[in-house]
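worker-3 :: picked Diguanylate cyclase
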Amino acid sequence: MEAESEPYVRLATMRQLHQAVADLNTARSLADTLQTVADGIVTGLGYELGCVNLVRPDGDLVIAAFAGNAAAEALITGRVGSRASWERRLAMGESWDQLRFIPHTEGWVLLDDDVPQWHTEGPEPRFEDEWHPLDRLYAPMYASGGGRDLLGVISVDRPRNGRRPGAWGREALQMYASQAAIAISNARLRANMQRALVRLEREQQALRASEESFRQAFEYAPSGMAIAEMGGDQQGRLLRTNDALCRLLGRPASVMRRYSFADLVHPEDIGTLLRTSAEGGRAELRLSRRDGTYLWVSLRNSVVADTADGPRFLLTHVEDIEERKRHELNLAHRASHDALTGLPNSAELKSRIGARLCERPDSPAATAIEALDAAYGDVESSLTHSYQADGYEGEAVPAGGLYDHHVHALAPDAEHDDGTKGLAVLFCDLDGFKSINDRFGHHTGDAVLIEVARRLSTCVRDGDTVARLGGDEFVVLADGLGAADAADLAVRLRNAIIPPIRVDGRAVRVGASFGIGWAECGMSVEEVLRSADQRMYVEKRSRSKVHRRAG
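worker-3 :: C-alpha cells ->
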C-alpha cells in the first residue's frame, strides 16, 4: 500500500510547490514578495519556521522577512549578520546540491557569531534522520543571468514531520529558492520600472531625464523587455526589444520589429495570449525561437499611458521559465509513471479507467430543469466526466441530463457476438519470472520487465494504454473491441512475449497468462481490475504447466 501511495505523495508535493510559486507572483511590492517567500516556506513546503535573509548594498545580510513564530519575528526581523559569517556558514556542513545542511554536531561553533538566530533546546535525536533543534538548513538565492551573485539566503527550521528532508523535499526547497530569487529580482525590477514610468508623466525637462533612466533600465534589464504599439492597424507590433529578449529568442532587434507576440506564440497558446488583459495581464506560454524551437516564458504587461492622449504603448516583461516547466513536467511524469519501464503506473491506470466510468446507465433520468442546470453549468446539480489517454483527450461535459454526451462503457456478450464494442481490460501476469529473478538476479529480472514492456507497447494501437501494475503484472486498456477482438489481442500479446529475451549474452524466456475483463459503467475501478485478475488466474490454472514453463 505504501508503494501505491508514493505517486500521490509526489503529486501532493508538486501541487504544494506549484501553489507556493504561484503565490510569489501575486505580490505587488518588494516587501510583499519577501513576506510571501517566507510564508510559502511554512504553508507550502512543510516547515514550521522560514526566514529570508537579503543581501544589502554593503554586502551584509539583513533578516527581511520571517514566518512561523510571531515572537521570533518581532525579535530578529531587521537584524543584520555580516557577509563573512554567512560565507562561513555556506562553506560548512554537508552540500545537498545547492543547499547547505549543518548538523547540530557541527553547528555549535556558530552559536556565538553575529548572525541573528532563533532556536530552542531539545533532546538528542532518537534516530538517524530526526531533526534536531540546532540543525540548520540553508538555501542560497542567486541573481538571474547565470552568475553566482548572492541575492540572499533562505533558512528553514523544524520540518513538520520531524525528519530531515528527503530527496523530494530537498528538490522542492531548491526549486522554491530559485523561483524566489526570480520573484525578488522581478519585484525590484518592477519597482524600478514603476518609478521610471512615473517620471515619464512629468514636465518636458523631467521627461527627458526619465526617458534616459527608463532606457537604461530597459536595455540592461537581465530579463527580456519589449515595447509594443497599442491601437491602430499596427496593434501589438513590437516597437522595441532589449538585448536580453533578442538573445532569448535568437533574433536581432531589427528582425523583432517585424513581428508581434501573436506572430511568435505557439499555435496552441494563441488563446492564452488573447485572453491576457492589457493592463496587469499575465500569461505563461511558448514563443518561437529562430531555430524553430519553442521556449516557455512568462509575460507580464503594463500600459505606459500619456496623461493627455491615453494609452500609448504596452510594456511587456518576458521571463524565461523553461527550466521550471521542465521540472514540473518531469515531476508530473515521475509521479504517474513506473520508474523502471516508463509505463503508466497503477495510480495513472486507475485514473484512466475511472475517467471512462460513470454511475449505472439505468439510474433515474434527470428532470427537464436539472437537465437545463447541467447544460448551463450548475455545479451542484451536474456531474462532469473527462477522459484522457496517451493519444487523445476529451473535454469535460455535463452528465446525467438532456445534453449528456457521455458514451456508456458496456461489456460485450462473450457467447453471442452482437456487435457491442467495449473497453477491454487485459490483465497480464508473467509465467516463470520469479525463477528468473531467483536464478539470475534482479538485474536480469529488471531487463526482462523492460523488454516485456517494450514488446507490449509495440503491439497496441495509438490511444491504447499499457501500464505496469506492479511486480510482474501488466494491464492493457484497449477501447472499441468486441469479445473476439480482445481474445485475438491477448493471443498477439502472448506471442510477442514468448520469444527468448537476451540479457548479458544469456537467453531467457517467460510466458504470460492473460485475463480479459471489461470496464462497464456502474462498476468501480477496483471491481474492473479484480474481474480481469480473477479471469487471469482461471486462465492460468486451465493451462498446462508445459505451456507455462519459462526460464
